[in-house]
């Protein structure tokens, strides 16, 4: 009886300390999130460092910002697949057109490049 109780206790400890299938998801496997990335260029088409890219959640109207890297790149991760987003870049009084990341785009990583106008 004592052996059965200790075996049961060991089995219970192993069960509680291990992950169940599907319990923990890797962010790459999460089907409810996505990311957007791209390059911001000046009116001549050259990559632009230090431009501000604004990402607006069209449901909540919350705005997130990213300052482009030295190669003009930006990225936003952890975006809901059920929300449409608007993107726009600004730099030194110039801005790009608004571009949309809509709910129908099913890619996990979407590339949207933004070009500033004069």
Any overview of this molecule?
The chain is mostly beta strands. The chain has one domain (28-115): Carboxypeptidase-like, regulatory domain (Immunoglobulin-like, Sandwich), CATH 2.60.40.1120. It has one helix at residues 2-17, and strands at residues 33-41, 52-57, 63-67, 73-80, 85-91, 94-95, 99-101, 109-111, 114-115. Strands 2, 3, 5, 6 and 7 form a five-stranded antiparallel beta sheet that branches. It starts with a helix and ends with a strand. Mean pLDDT is 84; it is low at 14-27.
Gist of the model:
The protein is mainly beta and 118 residues long. The protein has one helix at residues 2-17; strands at 33-41, 52-57, 63-67, 73-80, 85-91, 94-95, 99-101, 109-111, 114-115.
Structural class: mainly beta
CATH homologous superfamily identity:
Carboxypeptidase-like, regulatory domain
Q: Determine the mean pLDDT.
A: 84
Helix content: 10-25%
Looking at the overall shape, the CATH architecture is: Sandwich
Rg from alpha-carbon coordinates: 23 Å
What spatial form do the alpha-carbon principal axes imply? globular
Beta-strand content bin = 35-45%
- CATH class placement: Mainly Beta
Low-confidence stretches: 14-27
* Number of separate strands: 9
What kind of sheet is the major sheet?
5 strands, antiparallel
Distance between the termini: 84 Å
Oligomer: single chain
Q: Provide the domain count.
A: 1
| CATH fold topology | Immunoglobulin-like
SSE arrangement, N to C: HEEEEEEEEE
Query: Counting H and I runs of at least 4 residues, what is the number of helices?
Result: 1
């Amino acid at each position: 009886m004592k052996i059965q109780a200790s075996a049961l206790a060991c089995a219970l400890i192993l069960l509680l300390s291990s992950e169940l299938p599907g319990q923990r998801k890797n962010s790459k496997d999460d089907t409810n999130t996505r990311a957007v990335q791209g390059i911001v260029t000046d009116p001549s088409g050259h990559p632009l460092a230090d431009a501000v890219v604004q990402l607006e959640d069209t449901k909540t109207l919350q705005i997130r910002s990213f300052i482009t890297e030295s190669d003009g790149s930006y990225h936003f991760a952890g975006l809901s697949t059920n929300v449409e987003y608007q993107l726009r870049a600004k730099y030194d009084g110039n801005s790009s057109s608004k571009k949309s990341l809509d709910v129908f785009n099913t890619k996990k990583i979407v590339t949207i490049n933004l070009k500033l106008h004069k």
